[in-house]
């Protein structure tokens, strides 16, 4: 009896803009249904930022940006500010206008989201001047979201 060895080549999966959009909608639905009795909950901010990120990446795919370009951490990563800039360049305002106030809040949330501060607790964010700055930023985000 002869032994055969089969070698599988790497597979490629195409992720359509629809796939990203389905995930974005799921995070947005979770944000909209999330209820907390706390004065501040980072979970709600994380959910809406994740939805924004995936929505913009879906838009990129629909506009012909390659998946490899989207995955380039140095180019976009999770940086909402960079993603928003590219989305505007690609004409997102003709489909879903983004107000100046919304853009301002996305830029504010960017610093926290890209550093994963809505996901991981950092004691430095709750004391002293930095704590006051963080609290003010979260209050401003809460007013919009």
Structure notes:
With about 140 residues, the chain is an all-alpha fold. The chain has helices at about 15-35, 40-60, 65-70, 80-90, 100-115, 130-145.
Structural class category = mainly alpha
Q: In terms of per-residue confidence, which ranges show pLDDT below 50 for 5 or more consecutive residues?
A: none
Report how far apart the termini are.
68 Å
Sum up the overall morphology in one term.
globular
Number of helices: 6
Order of helices and strands: HHHHHH
Q: What's the gyration radius in Å?
A: 19 Å
Helix content: 55-70%
| Total count of domains | 1
Strand content: under 5%
Number of DSSP strands? 0
Mean pLDDT: 85
Q: Main sheet, how many strands, which sense, barrel?
A: none
Describe this protein with a few key phrases.
145 residues; 59% helix; globular
Short description:
By secondary structure, the protein is mainly α. It is built from six helices and no strands.
């Amino acid at each position: 009896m002869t032994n055969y060895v089969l070698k599988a080549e790497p597979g490629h999966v195409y992720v359509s803009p629809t796939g990203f959009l389905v995930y974005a909608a799921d995070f947005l639905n979770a944000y909209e249904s999330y209820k907390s009795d706390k004065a501040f909950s980072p979970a709600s901010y994380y959910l809406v930022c994740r939805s924004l990120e995936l929505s913009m990446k879906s838009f990129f795919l629909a506009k012909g940006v390659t998946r490899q370009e989207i995955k380039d951490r140095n180019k976009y990563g999770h940086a909402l500010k960079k993603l928003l800039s590219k989305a505007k360049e690609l004409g997102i305002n003709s489909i879903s206008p983004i107000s100046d106030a919304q853009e301002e809040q996305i830029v504010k949330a960017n610093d926290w989201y890209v550093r994963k501060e809505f996901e991981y607790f950092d004691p430095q964010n709750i004391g002293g001047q930095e704590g006051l700055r963080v609290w003010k930023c979260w209050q401003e985000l809460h007013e919009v979201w």
